[in-house]
Predict the structure of CIA30 family protein.
Amino acid sequence: MKKTTLALALAVCAGCFHFPATAASFLIERVRVFDGKKIQADKNVLIVDGKIQDSNFKGKPAADVTIINGKGRTLLPGLIDAHVHAYKDHELPLLYGITTQIDMFTNVTQMKEINEKMRKGDNRERPDLISAGVLATAPGGHGTEYGMSIPTLNKPEEAQAWVDARLAEGSHFIKIVIEHGSDKRPFNSLDTTTVKALIKAAHVRNKLAVVHIGNLKEAQDALAAGADGLVHLFNDKQISDKDMRDLVNSAKRKHAFIIPTFSVLESMAGIKEQDVLADKRMTNLLGKVQMQALNTPFGARPDPDLLNVPKMMTAAMHAAGVPILAGTDAGNPGTQYGISLHHELASLVDAGLSPTAALASATSVPASAFRLKDRGRVANGYKADLLLVDGEPDKDISNTRNIVDIWKDGERVTAQREQKQQEVSRQNAQKNLLVEIPADGRISLFSKEKLASPFGIGWHPSTDAPMAGKSSVNIKMLDTAKETDAPADAISIAATINPGFAYPWAGLAFFPGRQPMEAANLSAANTLKFRVKGDGKDYSVAISVQGSYIPLSVRFNTTSEWQEVVIPFSKFKGLDASIITVIAFNAGPQIGEYHFEIADIRLLKE
């Protein structure tokens, strides 16, 4: 979903041919097998050259075949996360047994490079990526707010050319957005006629067309238009029996599949993935930045009743025989690649699926839905994308976390897992050098000559221009001779917030590191304190941390009189003070003119 680039090293030489390395042969003996649909007891599974040669081997293995003990363990197909935005941490999901990711919007150059590696059979160090590439949205629609230019459309006559351009780029399927947003943040959206034309254009090329929706009406419209699948359900506290029944019947009649994405719906409801966050078998693969993202949901406070409708809807769809796919929407706050799929499986069970059905939702069901005929099953001729776990996950879904071994195209992933665990352990042991904060805590050393600071690269104007926004800001020292009540270091900030970026801002930013966006360890403080005066409007303090694209924000109000604002770090949900990159004081996101004055900014231990 976000702006990114990925530099992959591809060796190319004129007149040379690329031959993928041959994977070792091995036999997993006496193992329980979940074959993608059901459990088979006490099987011997033979792997040769990256493929499952025999899922029920009964002979004597060759001398060079490695024997792996499967007793007391369950062998699963490699897991498939049916909804991600794979813009970073490409190797991470594989370490959790996710061997394929279905990507719903990512960088086209990156998609092309991974497509080429997959074509060459040289993608063993990361999950395969089955991607929509660029999503179909209206000008100013959802998907245009991330600071990168993407091709949009707004009339049905443009649909076939738009679809053909995506397929030429290497998209495996087409993703369409029906999203009108909220009263606070409305989006332009494709109309029904254009959505129908896009779906028809995809089907003409024998490609799937899936649809992003945000509420009941949008879901109804998507299914009526002929969508092959809904890539989200929606949060709500209640739904009428008729609306529930009609939507379920529509999905069944249209032969559509559903990806509920509980991981991100829970995040929107302010709920953390506590089960995996508390499981060191899971978190020992996550660095600080990755933990920060997982530990920071969208919602400001937990509201579990918002999950009533998606839970009921998932249960009803499943009972009616509508295919349910496990997908996390990883790449969003409150989620994380790989680990969140194990949580998603538990959420599906909580919503009414049996553990066996949940396992199918992350293996054979998405493989079938997205027409991936070489994966999602433990069967002869299939890719040797495999996950071996202790215990019986068909009885206790949390046993998917008892990871013993992972194979991608027949190559063992254990060494990568161990290397990552050691790397995370070293990172946790090696804290960033603690910044020495002045005794009085003051970080605003403002004067007519300079917006100075006692450390870091200091204070600078900040706007949404890097995200293609059009807001502006003007900062100057106050004339304390005219404003006798103003502190000596007071500055005036006049901001104009304009449309352009979905979450426009302008203001003043402090960079505490020695270089732009370098993390600084500000753990010596736990409180931000400042004096402010303004036009009576609301503003925000936004703290960014290393590796995160969405700052942690706390709102504050201004009045016509100087007042002191005190904000404990604990108000910034999930903040890790050891990796702070920016502290900003911003106007926005509402459009308009803003003016406030600020002074005496301090970081304190209280």
